[in-house]
Amino acid sequence: MTAPFPEVTAPAPGPPGPAARAALRHRLAERGVDRMLLLVLPGVLAVVALFCYPFLYGLQLSFQPSHGGPLGAYRHFFADPFARKSIWATFSLAIPAALINVGASVPIAYRMRRDFRGKRLLLALLVVPITLGTVLTAEGILEFYGPSGWFNRTLHLLGLADSPVRLTMNYTGVLLSLIISGFPFAYLLTHSYLSGIHPSLEKAASTLGAGWWQRFRHITFPLLLPGLMTTFCLTFVMAFAVFPSAMMVGDPDGKTHVISIEAYEAALQRFDYAQGCADAMIMTVLMFAVLGAVTVARSRLYTGTTGGKG
Question: What is the pLDDT confidence band of residue 310, given thresholds at 50, 70 and 90?
């Protein structure tokens, strides 16, 4: 009889060697995955902790009112005429403020592309409101544009007004606050988009006899428009969430009773947290509806390499 063949056992799998690990890293790198993505982890955790979890918790709480069923808080908001008016009050402040900031930033940023005397000083003056904050800006508006402020005193001394011009505690005061605090961001974004448009395009048009208005209308503005729409979205979000200025220099019980004030009063004055969360969710849906419409319109514009990126 012949001896049976010896049984061959497979070697136990060991840890992958350096070549296998290098090949895995190479395959992941081809898909855009590498160790540098670990730097994103702290930001992702912060977003989850400070935004995602509170948002989802508030969304869940908005469907748990004390009466009226899961949609009771939402029905109560739209059934209350005063609460419904807060939608118009919010849009009537946010959209004009965003349009004014974007519109004013274009000619200033267009001129600031060139070097001139005092450019650094003017740039510092343009971005100073960023350091002030909303509350300090509102306080400054009260001191300067108030009934006894410097603005009305100057008008009285010059004989231009017999009685104080009312620019605070109304719609005008809140709009001024939103413009002052939002313009620096609009200007910086517009300036960066203009810097992405290569000057050779305008020079080529100039050699063909195009004036500055023709160059701006047919070359610069079409390339800049996608960036302006992005700037509008960012400034609109800032203005749509108006709260301190609406309370301090506006009329919170009247024309500047915005949705954020409605949510604040429901949650922290009437202690109806479900209603406050529902008001905040309505505010979020309305804001994203505008952003979505602008984003869709922006996607139909030119977004090449010479400008309009962002």
Answer: very low
Cβ atoms of 194 and 224 within 8 Å: the answer is: yes
**How far apart are alpha carbons 160 and 126 in whole angstroms?**
29
Give the span between the Cα atoms of 101 and 103, in whole angstroms: 6
In order, the DSSP letters of 44-71 are HHHHIIIIIHHHHHHHHHHT--SSS-TT
pLDDT at 303: 61
Contact 86, 262 (CB under 8 A): yes
Query: Contact 145/168 with Cβ under 8 angstroms?
Result: yes
* Residue 197: DSSP 8-state: S
Q: Looking at the whole model, is its pTM more than 0.85? A: no
pLDDT at 283: 95
Query: What 3-state class would DSSP assign to 153?
Result: helix
Comparing CA positions, the residue from 242, 244, 235 lying closest to residue 291 is 235
The CA distance from 202 to 208, in Å, is 10
